[in-house]
Amino acid sequence: MGQKKTLQSIRTTEKITIDGLLDEAIWKIAPIATDFVMINPGNGTPIPNRQKTDVKIVYDNEAIYVAATLYDDEPTKILKELTLRDDFATADHFGVFFNGYNDGQHEFRFFVSAAGVQQDGLYTDALGEDFSWDAIWKSEVKITDFGWVVEMKIPYAALRFPNSAVQTWGLNFYREVRRDRYQYCWNLISNTIQNEATQAGVLEGIENIKTPTRLFFIPYSSFYLNTKKGESSVNEFKAGMDIKYGINDAFTLDAILVPDFGQTKFDNVELNLSAFEQIFAEQRPFFTEGTDLFSKGDLFYSRRIGSEPSTYPDTTSDEEVINYPNTVNLLNALKISGRTKSGLGIGVLNAITEKTNAIVRKTTINPDNSETISERDVVVEPLANYNVLVLDQRFNKNSSVSLVNTNVTRNGEYRDANVSALVWDLNTKKNTFNLDGDFKYSYVNELSDLEDRKGYVSSLSFGKTSGKRRFRIGGNYVSNEFDNNDLGVNFQTHYHSLYGNTSYRILKPNELFNEFSTYLNLYSEYDNRTGRLQAGSANLQFNITNKKNDYISFAVNTVPLKTYDFYEPRSFDERRFVEIPEQIHFSFLFSGNYNRRFALDFNPSFTFVNELERVNYVFSIGPRYRFNDKFSINANFRFVRQNKNTGWAAFDEFDNTIFARRDRKSITSTLSAKYSINNKMNFNLNVRHYWSSLNVLEYLTLLDNGTFEKNTTYSENKNQNLDTWNLDLAYSWWFAPGSQISILYRNNSYLFTRNNSQTFSENLNESLDSKNLNHVFSISIRYFIDYNSLKK
């Protein structure tokens, strides 16, 4: 990796104004970091003198200050598109990476574009860059006749470091010249190895800092107006507060009191024909910001907290459930996270959800044939506590061993669950080879079972992680009773798998490509109880970035042998399975260089199944146009067709498993547009229309050998037609650091029928019919209060 560069920081007693002018005296004497080198495409190539980059760092007891002078011989060509925070868009960028423990594993990254837009995120080798984390810091940029200038103030509250008199931090700087798609760094990030944080330089000189109390209050208030044609309007007012407290320089407590997630992005709901639930990305800021520790072991899926209830009411023949809640209210949540000087990371997350009832209606027929109607409340989710504990020990600047525990405890006689994991990620000193794996154990106490259920998972893999040619081999074993679904996601059990992959890449551009890589992946999976092959595939993929910076990918995936699906029959009987024919899949992706005002993404794919006339094809096209630095529009149209698809349909009156051969088509249309008034004020429009229609051609009875015979007696209508519409029009203004006003107008509809004879336009018109649209208007104000300012 070569010699690490070192930059000396010096203390300042001078007040520094963040204005991008660099006119304070301290900047004239501060040591300089220079001699940047290229990351991509010509890894290791020195930066040309016409784009020379000089950076200086000074500090006081409150913050780190960064000054960067970025030379450019053609300053009129500097790209500077305005956009939302954390969106890099089409703009030049400067960034600084801090690792307060200098352990090569975790970086706080701060970027600012030539338009003054901030981006910040956390980097770990396992997750890469996570921009869901947001800190409070200041920056200012100035475009000059010699290039552009950046000035930053990053408070210690936005960083983590040990409580030591003398600090030694990991440090790197980043610059992107967007028009050329050239990326540079100060200390070389070599593409011969995959871990970037181990390749940072060193920051020295920070001594005897006395950091202020890290205590922040973020009160909020929100107003919601919900309307629908023919129904009474519903007004709702909410108020609450987030609290962030620095227990010390390394550990932070985050808490939310009376949470409000009403303005989070809508979920991309689809018609789900699989045996498993549809999984959605987390949208709630508390569960996305700074949660890298809690991802260890892959046991935590935060959408479990506040999702639908865990039980459904038992009813008699004369009862029906008339009100079943879709979600459970979150009462409060907190998380504590940080790392000791010795490298021990500690994370605790706790959340409490409220007791939730459904309403069951009973209709009694009296002797005179009149009806008596009564209703009762049934608890479908008791008061519940969700907890995650992580202990993560880092060592050798590139390795870690973690202990993870998740626990769900429900009040009273309800299901409880506890899952623990030991996770290791070990790398050689030069980051050339890696050994990783885990052992997980689950314990579920469910009163409906005669015995508590206990299960386990174990995995192990070994790989070469450096050079042009890399490989990995591994496998895992999942027992029948393993279950982490109370606070995680795990659909399949009772199987073991073996896999291997190899890859080749160029490390420097050649006469044809800026980047080129190819991957071969082999995977096999076997049912533990029967030994049958559940999955077996070979995948070959090519990825290319051409000299015009267009991205092209081509992949072939084949399943050369028959496999057996034990989940599609929706039965726990190990004798029930479906025989899946051999198949081959082709896909192609072209993504045009987004530097152009007009760019296009094009992504067709085809799947051919070894069954008469059974074929799937997908066509996706996404044009985008940037009118100017303030206004841009992106669209996407995706069409999916599945011919003669076979899947589960129902159980008949004799509990026979009924399948259906069916045709399915889906169309997803999306549109997003943004208009940025400046780098703190934005309008954003997001529209999504989804339509999926399923037409049953014939019914089939599943036989014991996994094949089918035609069923001529089952006649229920199992056609499906799902239509969803979502529109969000939002205005956002960051009127002060950490303080925001958000105004949102949302309308949406959700329509499901067994009538699939409607056309696309008829479904769209019905979605937009005023009687089906729900309208929400909301205003939210969040204000950031620093305890130190409040004290003054």
Low-confidence stretches: none
Structural class: mainly beta
Q: What would you call the quaternary organization?
A: single chain
Q: Name the overall outline.
A: globular
Number of helices: 4
Helix content: under 10%
Rg computed from alpha carbons, rounded to a whole number of angstroms: 29 Å
Alpha carbon gap, first and last residue:
48 Å
The proportion of strand residues reads over 45%
CATH arch. level architecture of one domain: Sandwich
Largest sheet: 24 strands, antiparallel, barrel
Calculate the mean pLDDT score and round it.
94
**Number of strand segments:** 45
CATH level 1 class label of one domain: Mainly Beta
CATH topology of one domain: Immunoglobulin-like
